[in-house]
Every structure is written in C-alpha cells, then in structure tokens.
Amino acid sequence: MKKISDKYTIYGRKKGRKKINIVEKDFFVNCRINLETDIKKNKMNIIDVGSGRGENTLFLAKKNPDALIIATEIFWDGNINLCKQLSKLRLYNVKIFSNNVLKLFDNLNKDDYFNEIWILFPDPWPKKKHYKRRLINDNFFTKVYPYLKKNGKIFIATDSSSYLKSIMNSIYKTKSLFNWLNNKPQNWIYDMLDLPYTKFFKKAQNSYRPSFFIELEKI
C-alpha cells in the first residue's frame, strides 16, 4: 500500500474534545478501513465525503445493507459520534477513513472501485480569496472519474448559490465524463427528495436558504 500523502492542507482543527473511550474500543478499531482488503471484498462501494455527524452515512448504511459505506471525515469528533451511533444500531457495513478524501484516491490504483460518491453540503468557503479551497471543481471530477464503476454516480448537495454556480461550471467543463441526470431546476430541490436531514441542511432551512441536489452519472 502506498504511503498516504501529506500534500493536502487541512484548514481548521482536526481534533476536538470528545474521547474515543465513549465508544467500545474494539468496535472503534474495527470501524477503521483497511484499504488493501475492505474495498476489494465488496461488490458495491459507496463513499460519503465529509461525513460529519454521520447522518448521511447512517442513511446510506440502512438503505444499502449489502454495500460497504466509506465515511471520510478528518474531524475526530464526527468520527467518534458516528462510531457511537453505529455501535448502538449494530450496523457493520461502515468503515471510516479519517483523512482528506483525495488522499484515499491517491492511495489506490486507478481502477473502478466505487459505485457512488456522496458529497452533501461541503464547506462552501464563501470568501472569494478562499474559493481555491473548495473540494468540487473540474480537477476533482477528472480525478475521481477513473475510480468510479461504469454508470457510477456522484451526488452533491449545497445551499451556497456561488458554490452551485461554480459546480455547474465544472460540470459543463467535464461534460465528456459525466451526464447530469437531474439537470432541470425543478429536480434540484433537496426538500422534495428522499434524502437525510443533515445538520447543514437544517441550518440552511433555518436561514431560509434553498438546498440544491445534483446527480451525475459516469459516461
């Protein structure tokens, strides 16, 4: 296995105040992914990028009991909270990658491992000087393309209008790689779809900001 790269900058703190001992130690250890074996074992692999408190990870784990759900989250408080919920619900089809998702791809050979990639409410970095920190751009789509299976999908949600415009621009630039399946505005409305009510979706609702949902399919 390749050494995980340190070339990606992490903004903000990674560790919080929660302690790992609030989770069964063996359960926590077993939740951590082994990239050499876990992904290859499963016919269906789904990535939840920036899993946060784990609302979407739990949603995906229940909806896809035969799939491996990979929760990628750099902040330990979120990972500990997710492990606590997994232990409580006795869900065993989730593994945690506690680092930048781009490092996960760097640590794999370019092969079609994944059926779905979910990115719900990524940090919008609203200041123009911070736009370069945004995860989703045309380089991101180009990078993940080889790792998706045929007809593999990317699901994205955001409540940031400027980020939405940027994502749409990147979709246009990479239109030879992905089909935009729900490309009519009436099909973007997050609230109208069977999707989890995450912390950031609720924050958007409380601030009367509409949330947009995008579904892409690999060509």
Roughly what fraction of the amino acids lie in strands?
A: 15-25%
Low-confidence stretches: none
Q: Output the radius of gyration.
A: 17 Å
How does the helix and strand content classify structurally? alpha/beta
Q: Architecture, according to CATH?
A: 3-Layer(aba) Sandwich
CATH topology: Rossmann fold
What number is the mean pLDDT?
A: 90
How helical, in percent, are the residues? Answer: 25-40%
**Contiguous helical run count:** 8
Number of strands: 7
Q: What is the terminal-to-terminal distance?
A: 29 Å
Major sheet description? 7 strands, mixed
Lateral strand order in the biggest sheet = 3-2-1-4-5-7-6
